[in-house]
Specification:
The protein is mainly alpha-helical. The chain has nine helices and two strands; from the N terminus they run E-E-H-H-H-H-H-H-H-H-H. A two-stranded antiparallel sheet has the order 1-2. It is globular and about 70 Å long.
């Protein structure tokens, strides 16, 4: 059943396609893995307090996992594609997510450990600088592959814009998603380069490069709204 996402976007997918159902189940499993990795139940108050301190890292990890799932669900509902390319790319997304659940959690724990001055725990013992470089590089490469996966999903939909009968408003929206994920990939490469090339004293701050995404997201949204407003004014003048 088709229904409007907003005034100009149409939902072409079914209520829940087979691809979306499978991906949703995989992401639910990924979230469960993040919980399981916490270990055994606390046996005393000290262990309970330590477990509570791990909550921010766990919640941040879940938020990112849910964000990834939401983006795929949005793509699936919007275009309703279940062809071979869509299945392969969706399968790749699942593999990436399941592989990076634990590294993602370690990164989020490390973030709160750094911001809190060591109050929140960081479970992974690190004794050498190259250990830190490895973790940061592993995360940057994973996030890069994730962004390229999403870029290819939206690029695939763009290539099928005529069979899908996308209107001009939808094409602008689609282009925004395509370029947004491409920019995410570029930021990941910058973070990776900072991790590999900066001296030890500065390399530890390389993950903060990802905060650039908040700035780029703002400009991407502003650019999209400007293009939509321009198109709307053209339609109003022609009517």
């Amino acid at each position: 059943m088709k229904q409007a996402l907003n005034q100009n976007l149409k939902m072409r997918g079914e209520a829940m396609s087979r691809v979306e159902t499978f991906v949703a189940a995989a992401f639910a499993f990924a979230t469960t893995m993040a919980v399981i990795s916490e270990g055994d139940m606390p046996k005393d108050m000290n262990e309970l307090i330590e477990a509570v301190k791990r909550i921010p890292g766990f919640v941040a990890s879940c938020v990112i996992i849910i964000w990834i799932w939401f983006n795929h669900a949005q793509w699936s509902r919007w275009f309703g594609l279940e062809d071979t390319k869509s299945l392969i790319m969706s399968g790749g997304l699942i593999c990436l997510t399941l592989i990076y659940v634990y590294p993602l959690k370690m990164m989020m724990q490390g973030l709160f450990f750094k911001l809190s001055g060591g109050y929140f725990p960081f479970e992974l013992p690190i004794s050498e600088w190259w250990h830190l470089r490895f973790i940061f590089s592993f995360y940057a490469i994973g996030f890069f592959l994730l962004s390229i996966n999403f870029f290819l999903l939206f690029q695939h939909a763009y290539n099928l814009r005529e069979p899908l009968e996308l209107n001009q408003y939808e094409i602008i929206e689609l282009n925004s998603y395509r370029w947004n994920w491409l920019v995410v990939g570029v930021v990941c490469l910058i973070a990776l380069a900072a991790t590999l090339l900066l001296p030890n004293s500065l390399m530890q701050f390389s993950p903060f490069v990802f905060f650039i995404l908040f700035i780029t997201k703002y400009f991407m949204i502003a650019s999209k709204h400007s293009a939509l407003d321009k198109l709307q004014k053209q339609d109003e003048s022609n009517s």
